[in-house]
Amino acid sequence: MHAPRAVVIRLPWDFVRYLEEDGIILSKDDKSLPDYQNISDEDDDDPQNDTPQLNFDELKKEITDGIKTLGGKVFPKLNWSAPQDASWMIPDGSLGCINADQVVLLLKSSDAISTDIEQYSHLSGHQENPSPFTLVLKEYMNIHQSYEFRCFVAAKELIAISQRYPTKFYPFLVKEKENLLQTLKSFFLENIRHGMNETEYVVDVYVVPKEKRVYIIDFGIFGPMSDPALFSWEELLPSSKDRSTQNCIMRVVENEMGIQPNEALVSRVPYDLKDFSDDGALKEYFNNLNYEQMKEENNKK
Q: Which residue stretches belong to region Disordered (predicted)?
């Protein structure tokens, strides 16, 4: 097996529309976040504190069954993107989900997922039945990001390989680059090239350290909508006769100066604001902000 096990679930339109809506509404029995505060029975009886109930029980059951099938922890993604920009919503900061509520929370919190839905709506102009959106639950793997790579395939040739996340410098990758290049070229020729009907695509892979066993993580579109990592699409798109697997180019971050900014951080909030309880950091932050504004207004009088 060259890829993690997966379960595919068709998403109903009402859930897709829910993902498009602003704001995050969690039901009372939501298990996506730990309980930071005990709520009294008196508070529970207050109708003003009632959270609107989300009627996605059937979908959540499918997700729960999928998680059990895949060993109790999964990595979620939609047709095109994974909610990597929302990983800060999960307590351990990963995309590993152990229940359906965490999966829903990640999808709802992700700008990448919202963008996918918006782009589809813009391009299609109508609502197909059934919904074309699918949720893919993949068996969770404890992956070292340093050994993840993005491979670019054009005309059924592996033309380029990049360190998947060029936000860090790993000195050992520089030393191992040539061996890794040969490992990935061989894997492509033996396991991917003749099994794909498409001639152009992006494929993310993971090389198990020391063992040099390769796993396919995901496939993507060959084009500007996919992150080119250490390349640019100006380099990758032009056709050329010498673009072949034999002449494949591999790039890793060669030194500290080559580190690139982490664009996923744009959508995140500071770690200290992850406590959403009534006495937590988020409320304290806004209380302090209001206090400073009132103080400034009083000084002007």
A: 35-54
Contact 160, 236 (CB under 8 A): yes
Phi first, then psi, for residue 27 (nearest 5°) are: -75, 165
| C-alpha closest to that of 14 among 57, 63, 78 | 57
Contact 130, 124 (CB under 8 A): no
Structural contact between residues 209 and 147, judged by C-beta atoms closer than 8 angstroms? yes
273: enclosing H helix or E strand: none
272 domain residue, yes or no: no
The string of pLDDT tens digits covering residues 45-81 is 554 444 445 678 999 999 999 999 999 999 999 988 8
Per residue in 120-141, pLDDT (tens digit) is 877 766 666 778 899 999 999 9
> What is the spatial order of strands in the sheet that 148-154 belongs to?
214-220, 201-207, 148-154, 157-163, 249-251
Which residue range(s) make up the domain with 59?
A: 6-142
In a shared domain, residues 192 and 223: yes
Q: Taking the CA of residue 126 as centre, how many other CA atoms within 13 Å lie in the half-sphere pointing to its CB?
A: 3
Round to the nearest angstrom and report the end-to-end CA distance of the chain.
72
3-state helix/strand/coil string of 16-82: HHHHHCCCCCCCCCCCCCCCCCCCCHHHHCCHHHCCCCCCCHHHHHHHHHHHHHCCCCEEEECCCCC
Write the CA distances from 68 to 52, 92, 93, 97, 121, integer angstroms.
28, 20, 21, 11, 33
Residue 18 lies in a domain: yes
Greatest Cα-to-Cα distance within the chain, rounded to the nearest angstrom: 76
